Hints:
By secondary structure, the chain is an all-alpha fold. It has a single domain (about 5-80), classed as Helix Hairpins, CATH 1.10.287. The protein has helices spanning about 5-10, 15-35, 45-80. Helix 2 runs antiparallel to helix 3 (about 45-80). The longest helix is centred in the C-terminal third of the chain and has 36 residues, at about 45-80. It is elongated. The model has no long low-confidence stretch (mean pLDDT about 85).
Amino acid sequence: MKRREIQKLHxxxxxxxxxxxSQVEKELIDLKMGSGREKAKDIxxxxxxxxxxxxxxxxxxxxxxxxxxxxxxKKEENEKV
Length: 81
């Protein structure tokens, strides 16, 4: 993934990230299943997909954490008032 693509991932919503995560997982499974039957054109294709998968999971976790922190701050502010 290029830097621009990674920046675009940060702009996606949680729902879009989850959809992309499942899509990349399916692509990785397809690569694994097809690798035994025929030679992959790109030898590093599976490694690249695993890297993409890790990036998406990391960004997803960051967004989930930030949402949780934001909700906790709102609760604290409501309790103070």
